[in-house]
Amino acid sequence: MQKETLRLSLRPREAAEAIGISVRTLWTLTQKGEIPHTRLGRSVLYPVEALRRWLQARSEGKAC
To answer: Which terminus of the chain, N or C, has fewer Cβ atoms within 10 Å?
Structure first.
């Protein structure tokens, strides 16, 4: 039996796949500051809960 790991953030490719967009579109949204993300050194991470809230707001017609 595998132990489930709690992921707090996703790397770009994982985040793009999770929300159903291309990595290129994700980078565009990131550069514009339109999608929640954080930088740690040279890495860009996308917090899972922030992405969920962002998507929920988008589906309700609200901008974050």
So the answer is: N
In angstroms, rounded to a whole number, what is the distance separating the alpha carbons of residues 5 and 54? 23
CA dihedral 31, 33, 38, 44 (to 10 degrees): -20
The total number of residues written for the chain in this structure: 64
Which pLDDT tens digit goes with each residue over 34-62? 999 999 999 999 999 999 999 999 998 76
Amino acid identity at 60: E
Bridging pattern class, strands 43-47 and 9-10: antiparallel
| Cα–Cα dist 21/15, whole Å | 9
